[in-house]
Amino acid sequence: MLNLAKNHDPRKNTELLAQFTGKQLDIRAVLEETKQLFLECSLKEIPFPSGKDCKHSLPFSQRIGLVLFWPFSRPVEKTVPVQIKVDDHGNVYPDWMQKLDDEYRQLIENVTKEVNLTDFGAVGDGKTDCTAAFQKAIGKGKVKLIIPEGTFITKGIRLPSYTWLVGAGKGATTIKLHNKAKKGTRLLTNANHWQGNHHIMVQGLSLDWNVERLGSIPKTSTWGNHSSCLTYANVIYGWVKDVEAINPGLHGFDISSTLYNYAGDGRRARGGSKYVWIDNVNSCGFGDDGITTHHSDYILISNSHMCDPSGRAHRKGCSNSNGIEIDDGSQNVVLVNNSTARCFGGVEIKAHQNSSAAANVQIIGHLSVNDNRSYNFRHIGHHKMEDPESKTAFNILATNLVSIEPVSTDLYKNSTPRSLVVSGYKNVVLNHFTAIGNPNYDYYGGPVAAIQYRARNVILSNFSFKNFTTAGTGIKVFGGKNRADSVRIRHVEICNSTMEAVSIGQGIRDLTVENVK
């Protein structure tokens, strides 16, 4: 039906979404509708639980980790989602975008010189080591560095504050890791992860992590936020525009804190990044995720495409490699008109058991093609009745999502295909969701969308399912001791499918289903 290869132009996603939904949505009106639905579900205040302590259910090694990471963490502050604006041209952006625009002008004013990389001895022949040339050209920052067409070899580049890297475009300018670069090398990162940096722009180039240099080793990454194409760690005011990340050992783009932090649910890392915009980027062949965020705030990811991970950062067959992953402790992240293909998760909003969940995440327009789980929202280790209830898994708003033909994958062999999974999160609204199956594919009688594992305050509105001839249910709300509760399902349409529209498990409290066709 649709391939979305690695060279897909994600700026076409808006028209593709309209094509597959068959709707020309008034985006301002539907976002207001989503906002009102969120206010409706969030009126049911759910206090942070004071029950079972997370550390008592963790293995000994992870309990030691809580102690080690505690000094580098801070308490989670419960906040509300940011406001979304729509301009007269239909462009969607968070309300803090004006602040970032003001800081962009500060970047321009503080860049005092413009230089060309070749003036410092660099040769873009794909052979010459240009590491020293980059260091000399960048210096202590306040520089706009022009990188012409060619392939420039380096052992890693570190960017101080007020630095602007500009290439001749994706595929025209390539920065590639040296064959002797260590496995943990970040191809491009900011200069000081501990003190932090600010006002950094990377634009118009390809970043090749050169995974081939490692041969056939089973794992392509080391630890933490190493082994990626581009890492912003403890960066305030950052931009990544028109950039391609090729075959990174871990992540294509990692917007991160100084250290990933595992001080427990209810704690966030110090030194997170803030006010970062990623726009029109591509990545493929990533060992873990295409784009990921950790313990960072006010991030906008727009018009970007992630596909075909290698999964080699994980054990074979157990690779949680997602196109876009909003991970541990992230808050106020906004995704607009992105796409993913053939990943484990298209968009995963989550946290590990020994960390705080991502919260206040908003998705406006997304196209998922052949991802195993198109949209997967979960706080690992906080799902079952005997698990500690999540203190931080709150507030997801999603509008105009499309899932096309979810399939099984060798990345995670035992994972059944789903268009949507919600587990453990509270205050979740999905409005205008289109799932299109393959009528010849075997979905083993399973559900297309699963609301499960103690999810609470969930509203699903304007759902459409097409061409699922072997699935059992469109939406299944799981019951039993680990049941979901407080679920509203409204306006569901089933076309060209033999499955039941909605299936309700036993013992569920506070559930309504309205207008199912």
Automatic annotation (TrEMBL):
Keyword Aminoacyl-tRNA synthetase: no
Single GO MF descriptor: lyase activity
Source superkingdom: Bacteria
InterPro entries listed in its UniProt record: PbH1, Pectin_lyas_fold, Pectin_lyase_fold/virulence, RHGA/B-epi-like_pectate_lyase
Pfam families: Pect-lyase_RHGA_epim (PF12708)
UniProt keyword terms in alphabetical order: Lyase
Keyword Lyase set for record: yes
Protein name: Pectate lyase
Domain named Rhamnogalacturonase A/B/Epimerase-like pectate lyase: residues: 115-347
Organism encoding this protein: Neobacillus paridis
Gene3D superfamilies: Single-stranded right-handed beta-helix, Pectin lyase-like
